[in-house]
Structures are given as C-alpha cells and as structure tokens.
Amino acid sequence: MSEDFGPIINTPGHSGVDFETRVDFDRLRSYRLARAREALDQSDLGAILLFDFYNIRYVSQTWIGGALGDKMTRYCLLTRGGEPMLWDFGSAARHHQLFSPWLEPENCRAGMLGLRGAIAPQVGLFESAVKELVGILSDHGLLDQPVGIDLVELPFLFEIQKAGVEIRDAQQLMLDARQIKSQDELMLLSQAAAMVDGVYQDIFEALKPGVRENEIVALANQRLYEMGSDQVEAINAVSGERCNPHPHNFTDRLIRPGDQAFFDIIHSYNGYRTCYYRTMSVGSSTAPQREAYAQARAWMDTAIELVRPGVGTDEIALAWPAATDFGFANEMAAFGLQFGHGLGLGLHERPVISRLNSLRDPIELQAGMVFALETYCPASDGVSAARIEEEIVVTEDGPTILTHFPSQELMVANRY
Are residues 103 and 250 in the same domain? Predict the structure, then answer.
C-alpha cells in the first residue's frame, strides 16, 4: 500500500476548507468501491448481495438511520463490471437519487422485505425481490455463477435458493476488503478518537461521589452529538464492585469515594468508529488499584511494541496472559478482556486478536490496518479492576496511536 500516513498524526478540523488538505470524500468513496470490486474480481463469485449496513455503506456510500440497521431490509447488489444497485427504505431511495450523484439514479430503488419477520413471507415481498434480482443477474449473464451474501433473513435465503441461485459467504470477502484503510479513513478514525479525547476530559472533571454511572453515560452522549457524532453505539460505565468481573454495561449505581471506574466509548464520526477504554479512581486510589493498573498498562505496552508489518496476531496474543493466569477457567470465559479487534465502519473488523482464535488462525499485520488493543487486570482487593484500550494504526515505521487521553498512570479524578 502506497498511502502516506502523515496526516493521521495531526487531526485536521472537521469542516472542509480551501487552505488545508483534509478528508476528500470523493477519494474515500472511490477507494472503498475499488476495494470491493477488486475483492469480487479475485473471487469466484459473479456478484455480491449485501445486507450488512456497514458493507452497504462501503460499497454504495449511503447511510440512513441506525434504527434500521438490524432489520436486513436495505440491500445492495454489486455485479462483476457493474455499478452498485441499492434497494432502500421507502423515500430514502428518492433522496439518494437527488443527493448521491455517484450512484446512477435508476440504481436507487425502493425496497422492502420482512423487517425481521414483522411482514410475513406469504405477503410475497421476498418472492418479488428475488424475481427482480434473478432478472438482473440474467441480464448480466451471471445466472450460472455463485452469488455471495453477507447477512440474510431465512425466508429470503430459502426463496433465492429455490430460484436456483448458488449462495456463498460474502462477509469474509468484504471484511478482507475493508481491513486496509485509506488516508481518508485514517483521518476519520483519528477525528472520531479526538472527539472521545475531549469527552474523557469532561468525564474526569465530572467523576465524583454522588454521580451515577448513567449520568456519565448521558454526559458522554450529549458531548459526542454536540461535537458531530453520527451514532453513539454504546457506552460502558463500570464502577466499584462492578469492575470485577467486567459486566460490559452501565447501571444507575452511585459512584463512591475511592471507587475505581472504567468506561468504554463506542461512537462513529462519518461512519468510522471508536472503541476507547479509560480507567480512573475517584478522589483517591489504593495500592491494589494502582498495582492492577500498572499491570494492565505493562501488558498494553508489550503488545504495542510488537505492532509492525509482518508480525502475526498470534505473537501479540501470546504477549498477554492466559485466561487461567488472571482467574478464568479458559479463553472462552475470558474473551474480550485481553483482546484486539479491527476498527472501521464496523466495531469488530479484522484482525481479531486473542488467545481464543489467533493461535490457531493468525493474521499477518499490514500497513494500513487499524485495530484497538484492550487489556484488563483484576485487583487483589477482589472488586476493583483496571481496563485500558488504545487504537493503533499499523504503519511501515511501526504503531501510531490514535487515542491520546493520558493513560500511562492511573489518574485520580477530583483528588482529595
């Protein structure tokens, strides 16, 4: 990959200007479609049919409200040598015709399937959609070639198989295509992380006895949307005795003096996501809390030092402790604690790094990959725990870190 990664170090402003080079959205759209086409051309598929919201955005460069993201009603077809064709939710199709000039107007169509079963199959929407798609495949001379699908409602799968179309897995193809990020994708990922940098400053100032976990979540949501986030996907807020074991959620628990607390902020800016943990103590810290944090930081630093092109994800996974070393029966039970995962339009892209999968199926790191590394260490007091996460870009010169809020030492908010 010949991308110049320099601009990711200094995060440019969000708005386009005439006096600096910033995100070039035309270049971004061209890059993503070219990557998908290249992956399709190198496969044995005649076309890919995409229901995954992130794959649809990657290929068609369109997005509508996240409430429809899990309904598998929008879909996009990319054929060999063809232009993307998009079936969208009602009036969104007309909107694309007006405001998405990179798509051919006749390729922006209204579509509706089952809304995860809310519209019963006997209505005939699956049957009519498959009939239309088979006609398009026939027009392109592709009926004798397999079609890849990423996600699907079962009635649609049954209907398209009944029509004689051979179906293959397209999700693997699309995840491979998406794993190498362009300069514009890297800038958007950096901008998304910079927004969370600022939110953590707000959390650090607000974190005091009497504040509830859900109030911190509300604060983070408000600040992110004020700064331009297009989706706050999830925020973990975990404090006190809830830190160990990690519950991966938030509650209305009142934060108390001396609590250790950690947070994970998952949001997207122009589609590009963060996964960004930080741990703090409230008012004061104890020796067990500081020791746990120092260990989690040491595991993080060891992993980051390994990041460079050519290194296998198994090498990073082996730099972390085995599950049995920090109180879990096996790697499945501890999954997600010593952990890495790709970041992009989706929260969990390639590579996924853990002892559960990477020792058996390692992936070689390449320049342009972006992933988050996460470590977790329970404290000897039996309730506290430290959680740290850094977002990493693989460059030819090694790792570049996108997450800048201080994390080398345990920070104490509103110290007494």
Answer: no
254 touches 229 (CB < 8 A): no
Which conformational region is residue 381 in: left (phi greater than 0), alpha (psi within -120 to 50 degrees), or beta? alpha
pLDDT score for 8: 58
pTM: 0.95
What is the tens place of the pLDDT at every residue in 209-248? Answer: 999 999 999 999 999 999 999 999 999 999 999 999 999 9
Are 318 and 405 in contact by the 8 Å Cβ rule? The answer is no
Rounded CA gap, 276 and 10, in Å?
A: 19
Given a contact cutoff of 8 angstroms between Cβ atoms, the answer to whether 341 and 372 are in contact is yes
Q: Which three-class secondary structure state does DSSP give residue 26? A: helix
Number of folded domains in the chain?
A: 2
The amino acid sitting at 345 is L
Same domain, 317 and 171: no
Same domain as 154, residue 274: no
Report the distance separating Cα 70 and Cα 382, nearest Å. 38
- What is d(CA 345, CA 286) in angstroms, rounded to the nearest whole number? 39
Name the DSSP class of 33: H
Question: pLDDT tier at 3 (50, 70, 90 boundaries)?
Answer: very low
Task: Report the candidate in 60, 59, 40, 52 with the shortest Cα–Cα distance to residue 147.
Answer: 40
DSSP assignment of 73-95: --EEEEETT---EEEEETTHHHH
Q: Rounded CA gap, 249 and 188, in Å? A: 26
Q: Which residues, in sequence order, are CB contacts of 199 under 8 Å at separation 6+?
A: 219, 220, 223, 224, 265
Which is more confident, 66 or 101?
Answer: 101
Query: Is 102 in contact with 94 (CB distance < 8 Å)?
Result: no
Strands (DSSP E) found in 224-380: 231-239, 260-269, 272-273, 276-282, 339-342, 349-353, 370-378
Question: What CATH number should be reported for the domain holding residue 404?
Answer: 3.90.230.10
**Residues 185, 61: contact at Cβ < 8 Å?**
no
Helix (H) / strand (E) element for 126: namely: helix 125-139
Both tokens of 173, joined, read 């193809």
